[in-house]
Amino acid sequence: MHDLQLLLLILLLLVVGLATVARRFRVPYPIVLTVGGLLLGFVPGLPPLRLDPDIVFLVFLPPILYSAAVFTSFRHFRENLRPISLLAVGLVLTTTVAVAVVTHGLVEGLPWAAAFAFGAIVSPPDAIAATAITRHLGLPQRIVNVLEGESLVNDATALVAFRMALAALLTGAFSLSDAVVRFVAVVLGGIAIGLAVGWLAAQVRRRVDDPPAQITLSLLTPFAAYLPAEAAGVSSVLAVVTTGLYIGAARLLLSPSTRLQALAVWEVVVFLLNGFIFVLIGLQLPAIMGALSGSTSLPQLLGYAVLVSLTVILVRLAWVFPATYLPRLLSRRLRERDPYPGWRPIFVVGYTGLRGVVSLAAAFALPLRLPGGEPFPARDLLLFLTFAVIVATLLLQGISLPAVIRALGLVDPEAVRRQERHARLEAARAAIGRLEQLASENGDRGDHLERLRWRYEHRSRRLALDSDVPADEICRQFSGEYESLRRELLKAERDVVRRLHEEGEISDDVMLLIDRELDLEESRVET
Description:
The protein is mostly helical. Helices cover 78% and strands 0% of the residues. It contains 22 helices and no strands. The radius of gyration is 25 Å and the shape is globular.
C-alpha cells in the first residue's frame, strides 16, 4: 500500500514537472507526458501500476468528455454535423474493418470476431491529444471545430462496435441486421438519457445560489449521465457528451464569481486527469513486453506494429478526401452553401488521427479467457499492437504535426490576436451603443454616463488603431448608480462576444479569455 502511495505521489510530481517542461519548450504536453511515463516504467524498483479499464471509463472519461462538450459551441457542432458524422461514424467503422482484415491476415489463427474487436479498439482518435497539439497553432477555426466535434463522438461508435464484436466472439453468433438495430438503439438511448440529465441538471443548478454547491453539482453532472446510461446498456459516452452540449448551450445564469471559481476548479481537474492518462500510457510498456517475452520475436512484433499503424494512418488519409469532395459532387445545394475546400486543410484533418487512452483501456478490457475456459486468442499481442498504434500516432504524428501544418501554410500566428482585438472592439462598441440607449432613458445619470462613455470611446479608438498603449486607469466612484451602469455595459460586452463566438468569428480560446476578463471586472463591481 505504501509503495502505491509513493508511486502516486511520484506521478503527481512527474505530471507537474513534465507539463512545466512542455510549456517552457512549447512541446505538446501529451507527447512529453507519454515519453516521461515510458522512461519511468523502466526505472528498477518501482511498483507496477496497471491500467484498469473500469477506472478509465468511469473516473477519467466522463469529466474529460463533459468538460470538452460544455465548451464546444453547439452551433459549430450542428453546422459541422455532416463532416463530424462522416469521421466519427463512417471513418471509425471503416478503420475497424480495415484493421480487422490486416490483423486477421497477420496473426495466424486469430478469429474474425477478435480481429474486429481489435479494429474497434484502435479506430477512434483521442479526445485530448489532437486538440492539445493543434489548439494554439492558429489553425482555421473550422478545422478545430471538426476535430473537436469528432473527438466527442467517435469513442461512442468505437466502443459500441467493440462490444458487439466481443459479444459475437463470446457467444459465437452475429447478425448484421440485429447489430444495426442494436447500434441505433444504443446511440438514440444515450442521446435521450443525456438530454434528460442535461435538462434536470440545468433546472437544479438554476435554483442553487451557492458557489461551492454549484461547482460540486457541475463535477457530479458527467457521472449522473454516465452511470444511468451504462446501467441501461446504451452509449454512456454519448450520454455524457449530450449532457455537456446541453449545459453549454443552456448558458446557466451563474454569477461571475461562481463562473471564475468553477473554471479554476475544472482546469485543475482536467489537467490532473489528462496528465495521469498520458503518463499511465507510457507506464504500461514494461508489463506488455513482459507478457510477450518469448512468444514472438522482436522483429516480427515490430513488423506487425508498423503494418497495423500504417493501416490506421493511411485509412484516415484515404477517407477524408472522398468524404469531403463526394458529397459536394453529388449535391448542388451543398456546393453552393459550402464550396469545395482546398486539399491542405483536408490533409491536416486526415493527418490528425492521434490515438490515446480509450484505445488502451479497451484493449485491457479484453477478457482473459473465453466462456469455454481457453485463453483469449492473442490477447497479449493485441495489447502490444494497441500500444504501438498509440505511440506511432501520438509521438510520430504528434511531433511532426506542427511542422506539417506550417509547411502547408495553414498557420496564422496573428489569427488569435486579430480575433481578440476584433472581439474587444465590437464589445466596446456594443457598450457605447448601450450607453446611448441608457442616456436617452435616464438623463439624470449624466456624470456617470459621461465618464463611462469617455472610457469606452478611448478603448475603441485604441483598439481601432491597434495601439499598444496600456489601458486607461479610471478612478471610479462606486455609487449604486455607477455599479448598475457598469453591469449593464458588461452585459452588452458579454452578449456581443458570445455572439461573435457563435457566428464563428472568434475561437473558443478567445471567447473564454475575454469572458473571464469580463467576469473579473464584474466581480470587482459587485465587491
